[in-house]
Amino acid sequence: MESQQTPEILDYRNENGHGWSFYKHDGILRAVLTNPEDDKEMIRKVQKLELRDDDVMIAAYPKCGTHWLWEIVNMIRAGNSEYNKKAKGFAMLELPKSERADKLPSPRVLNSHLYFRHLPEEMAEKRIKTIFIMRNPKDVSVSLYNHVKGSKKFTTFDRTYSEFLDLFLEGKVPGGGYVDYLKDWQQVKQDNPDLPFLTLFYENLKEDPVKNIKAVADFIGQSVTDELCQEIAEACSFKKMKVADAEVKEDYAERSETWKEGHTGMFRKGEVGDWKNWITVAQNERFDDVIDRTFKATGIAFTYE
Q1: How many of the other CB atoms lie within 10 Å of CB of 127?
Q2: Residue 265 to residue 262: CA distance in whole angstroms
Q3: CA angle 74, 42, 86 (to 5 degrees)
Q4: Percentage of the residues of the chain whose pLDDT score is greater than 90
Q5: pTM above the 0.85 mark?
Q6: Is residue 113 annotated as part of the catalytic site, yes or no?
Q7: Domains located in the chain, CATH noted
């Protein structure tokens, strides 16, 4: 039985006072963005969420293409290239009021950045089809930096990318360590061989969207034409999704409450290799060293440009 004691708060802010504090829950570092007890209650609610047999779950570390893939899967299921009127936040399990997902009509496309053991307990029992998408860690670090710097939610960091990179490489950012997240999901696949599981790479989806959209459709058992796949690929291009996000979507929260003034919101560039505009030669050497020592153990080969 889990201890009811107040969790120990681990202060991992840097020497300049920027960064986050964390607490440990089920062996996972969770950034203290709210009261830890409220955070644990959110996880308990997610774990008890009742799943439906035709649910699809999209799982990813932050800034790896969750939003993009969520739009694609919704379009495949709808059989057209029209945007879902609701923002993906309505179907994101860990956001406040996660019970919103319970009110969504079937078939649902759920999404989450949570570890598997914090997702609904029925995932394995109901053999929920799960799509896992990854992105190269260098672009993830840049995208996550811009996200946290522009969000009103992450109030304890407003510094340079260089400072953020130090924290990212140590796994001391919201979302925790990227390599830890990947290793945990790899273990999930090994431990749950009956769980229907599709792995995608952000970079492959960018390079050949039609091929990857077909793969997703096959995985979820949906018949699609080449023409529909092309239409979905075009509708889910970065520029068009950015416009749709601003003009079409019913959001789960007021944008002015979510983003700082002047910030572009959820969409910034969506490019492969943008890290080259941010990471210095010395930082890249350090990054490569971390990748060699940690990510190589996963056996995952990333594409960086």
Answers
A1: 14
A2: 9
A3: 25
A4: 70
A5: yes
A6: yes
A7: 38-298 (3.40.50.300)
